[in-house]
Structures are given as C-alpha cells and as structure tokens.
Write a structure and sequence with these properties.
single chain, alpha/beta, TIM Barrel, 5-stranded parallel sheet, 3-stranded parallel sheet
C-alpha cells in the first residue's frame, strides 16, 4: 500500500527496528539512497535497511561534502527516504553540527524525521570525505563528549561512532579512540578508510562491538563483498554513493544525447517507463484511497509520428 495506510506501515520506532536487525545473525547490508525513489527501488530489491550519505545529499544539492549543509536540510532527506521505504535508515551525521548541545539537537531532529541510526565522526570542521587526505581530527575526549551527548538525547536512535584516526594515528590510535567512544555510550563503531583486509581484521579483533564497513568506490578501500566483510568481523556494510554515481552518469549521458540528437529518442531504452515508475511509487494505491480521483490509464507506448 502507501505510507498513508497499509499493513506494512511500521508500528515500532525506526531505532528499535534497526537494533533488531543488528542483533540478528548475518551482516546488515545498506545501500545509499539519496532520495525517496532510490529508497523504494532499494526496498523492492530486498534490502531491509538503508543508508543516507552526507556526500550523496550534498552532491545532489550541487555542493561539496565539506560540512556545509544543516540539520534541517538533512531532515528533509530523512523524511522522504524513511517515509517512502518504511525501512530503518542509518544517517550520516557528519561531526554532529557543533558541540554537545548541537549533537543533542541533531539526534532529536533526526529521530523526529524518522531515522533509525546516526553516525558521528571525530573530524574537525571543515570536515572531508573519509577517503581524502589531511583530515583534521578532534580531540578524542571532545568526540567522546559528543557521543555521550547523543546517548543522553536519544530515545531509540542507534548511535554509531566513526573514527578517521587510522590514517594519522595508526591502528593503535583508532582502536584507543573506538574504545573511548564505546565507553561514552556508542552502540557501534565505524572505522573509516581502512586500506586492506589485514587492517579490517585487526580492528575487528581488537574492538569488541558491532562494526560498520564502508564500501565506497574510488576511495582507499579495495573492493570487498558483504560476505567478505562479515568474515572479517563486521556487522554492517554501506555502499554510500553508488546509486548516486550511477544515476549521475546516466543523467550526463542523457543530457549529452539530447544536445547531440535534438531529443531523447535515442535514450528511450535506457529509461524507466511510466508504467514502471507508477508501479514503484504505488500510483494506483494512492488513487484508490481517494474516490474523487479518476483512475489513471497509462499509455502503453509512445505514439508514432
């Protein structure tokens, strides 16, 4: 049905549902979904949880991932992804948008918008993608204070503490930070930008907590499958920007074709049809809820000239 009515409308808070997924056997796979349409398609593919990437949100707004968007702008994305899919969503909370009180405000705002989980990182502003160079790290105890603030403010939200320390402080520094963040109240740890399987395995061996792996393309981490991450000791894996990258590449090709050919006629085979779009968004289900709307008849094909 729809998010307005239906047996699949979730009864439990998203944080509770996210935690139940983590407590099950197996690794939780979360593709990045940067809008409601992507969220619906990921759910149709069988995923049980989704990821909302700061890099994908900012890129879709035409901005770099440098911590320039606001809590309310992120909440807009959360609402559409959570509402469309009905699935628990892990949200990129960047550095928490400030200090302790700002983090608490973020947690409550994200929960109200429908998020199931959030991760907060130990960088300083202006923050950078975890797979880029020369990241500036916050003091570990300042980051722990943010984690404690998030824990204090949350009702059910699952809290993941991300550490970017491996690149500058080595494995010992990353592990020490992770243990401090767990003591402060984090539910799970996200070690960012590990560069090989041995690093992933060592971190998992030394940190006893649910761990999140980031399988982003064009970064510092080699390609691993979900099964390989699970074997290395990881409970969650995200593909943060993959869907956006594929969509953006397709759009680039479309615009080039229109400019070259004077129309989109040579790209029809690459397009989602109207019928497929309406099926994905449940168009007929919405019409059925309002008897005043005349049932739409979808054209079977484009008319010939």
């Amino acid at each position: 049905m729809t998010y307005l009515v239906g047996d699949d409308v979730p009864a439990e808070p998203a944080g509770v549902r996210f935690r139940k997924l983590i407590e099950r056997d197996g690794i939780v796979q979360m593709p990045g979904t940067h809008n409601g349409q992507a969220a619906l398609q990921a759910r149709a593919a069988g995923f049980e949880a989704l990821y909302l990437s700061g890099a994908a949100m900012t890129a879709s707004m035409g901005l770099p991932d440098l911590g320039v968007i606001t809590v309310d702008e992120v909440a807009f994305f959360i609402r559409q992804v959570a509402r469309a899919s009905g699935l628990p969503v892990l949200v990129d909370g960047d550095t928490g948008y400030g200090e302790a009180l700002n983090v608490m405000h973020m947690v409550r705002t994200f929960e109200d918008a429908g998020a199931g989980a959030v991760h907060i990182e130990d960088q300083l502003l202006p923050k950078k993608c975890g797979h880029l160079n020369d990241k500036k790290l916050a003091d570990a105890h300042d980051m722990a204070a943010k984690v404690a603030a998030a824990r204090k403010a949350r009702r059910q939200l699952y809290i993941v503490a991300r550490t970017d320390a491996a690149a500058s402080e080595g494995m010992d520094g990353a592990v020490a930070r992770a243990k401090l963040y767990l003591q402060a109240g984090a539910d799970a740890i996200f070690p960012e930008a590990m560069t090989n399987a041995d690093m992933f395995r060592e971190f998992a061996r030394r940190v006893e907590a649910p761990l999140l792996a980031n399988m982003t393309e064009f970064g510092r981490t080699p390609f691993f499958t979900a099964a390989e991450f699970e074997a290395m000791g990881y409970k969650m894996v995200i593909w943060p920007v993959s869907a956006l990258r594929v969509a953006n590449k397709a759009q680039e090709e479309l615009f080039a074709a229109i400019r070259r050919d004077g129309g989109a006629h040579n790209m029809i085979e690459r397009m989602q049809t109207r019928t497929q779009l309406y099926a994905t968004i449940g168009y007929a289900d919405y019409e059925a809820l309002d008897a005043s709307i005349v049932r739409t008849v979808v054209p079977e094909a484009m008319p010939q000239r």
